[in-house]
Write a structure and sequence with these properties.
The complex is a heterodimer of chains A (about 300) and B (about 190).
Chain A: H1 7-21, E1 31-38, H2 53-66, E2 70-76, H3 88-101, E3 107-113, E4 115-117, E5 130-132, E6 148-150, H4 151-159, E7 166-171, E8 184-185, H5 199-212, E9 227-230, E10 240-241, E11 246-247, H6 248-259, E12 267-269, H7 270-279, E13 293-294, E14 299-305
Parallel strand pairs in A: 1-2, 1-3, 3-7, 7-9
Antiparallel strand pairs in A: 4-5, 5-6, 9-13, 10-11, 12-14
Helix pairs in contact in A: 2-6, 6-7
Chain B: H1 3-22, E1 29-44, E2 51-66, E3 70-81, E4 90-92, E5 95-106, E6 113-126, E7 132-145, E8 154-165, E9 172-185
Antiparallel strand pairs in B: 1-2, 1-9, 2-3, 3-5, 5-6, 6-7, 7-8, 8-9
Classes of the chains: A alpha/beta (about 300), B mainly beta (about 190).
Amino acid sequence: MRPDNPRTILLPLLILTVLSSCSLGPKLPTGRAYIYGVTDYGGGTPNIDLAYTDDDAEAMAALFDAAGYITNLRINAGDGSSVEPATVAQLQADIDAFIANAMPEELFIFYFAGHGVGSEDNTGDPPADWLILHGFYSGAPWDADHGALSDDGLATMLKTIPGSRKLVILDSCHSGGFIGDSPFWDPVPADSSDESDSFLEIFTETVKAYWGFSATGAEDIASGNAFVLTAAGEVEKSVETAALGHGVFTYAFLLAAEAGDLNQDGFITLKESYRYMTDNWSDIPKTTTFQPHLSGSAVDLVLFSSQ
Amino acid sequence: MNIRRTFCTVSCFFILVTTAAGNSPAEIGLAFLSEVSAEGTVSAATGFTPGLQASGTLRLGGSLSLPGGFGMEASAGLSGKTPSFFLGSLVYTAYSGLFGTLELLWQPEKGPWGILSGFRGDFMTLSLTDHTFFFPSLSAGVCYSFPADEDQGWNLRLCLKHTQHFRKDLAFSSSTGIGLAILQGGGTGQ
């Protein structure tokens, strides 16, 4: 029997076509990871070299490489094994290369393990939070030419990358200061040892965050520019320990990338990683009161497969 | 769209209608309102594929019937939204929390059909990160009230509603849903 109207056949076919074209579950993104770790700061006086940030970077590079990302390792380990210099100039070159070569929808990832300096601890003008890359030395001017990359400076570099698929992971002191303006209110204070706010205070701060937010006037790495995951609050330290052979935050992130599939769907998202780290902090040696911070966003990114 | 100007315009409309209705010498009544509803929400973050999320809400409030077939309703409730689906490596995060509404219902000739418009404010918490956020919304819809049982003192109302959310973190967000309400008392607008 032939249907009277061809649409009775075409409509189900159209619906089937649309449904089959949809991805019926999560899938891994394609992306490029730029992994920076600075151990050797040149041996100046005072000596500010770190012990495990090169190991952090190598472990993170191995993680992203195994997950299928195009991975670029930049370390100054101080033992002659430098691959590429972990400098501000190299970061700019990497961003330029990403813009030139990346396919649409590719995820840009920047990871940094090294020193961070808070705005209250430096003489920058105006005061800022800083990442200290290779090339910085004691007494050097606070600028990108001398290895000091400010929060606004990094935000400006990231803005040149089209789109919003950008992730910044910082294992450094005061790194929470890189999380910029957003209409979300972070329940974890800049100093996590502070007392929790009351419900009324949280509500008031949340409403103020909404009405006070303007995307055009946003500072630091603003919501919409990039996702930012940090080891510490704006006024907190990030630490590394000999027992772990890593920075505590990076160690926790590596664990989350293995065991952070909280909803058991076979994939680990950025927010699942964050949640795993905060909920399982008791399994990770407590050396101080700091805890990770994540920028607020309605969107979450699939990062790893748990299978 | 200028959010402040839109809210100002709608607020003036509310004040005008309620003032006009309040000057009429007809009877005013109050009813207790409870409603469950289901919604689908389409959201789009700048630079990302739009996502579809489902949500359920439960709200309680009061309905003040006014002359001329008007009814003013205020309510508060709970809302929860699922993660998005069909988006590959991207997920719109689930969230839940509290919301409040202030709505105006007009039922011409006090018949079963009515149109509804109002404000909504959501105070929500993102799952996994616990970030809190607020956003205002404007809603409009059509309602059908089943004939009141005057002996029992309650009636049912079915509403199809569209809500435009003014989210500063998203380029676009709007919801469409259906709600079933029970109104108990003398102010059902009938």
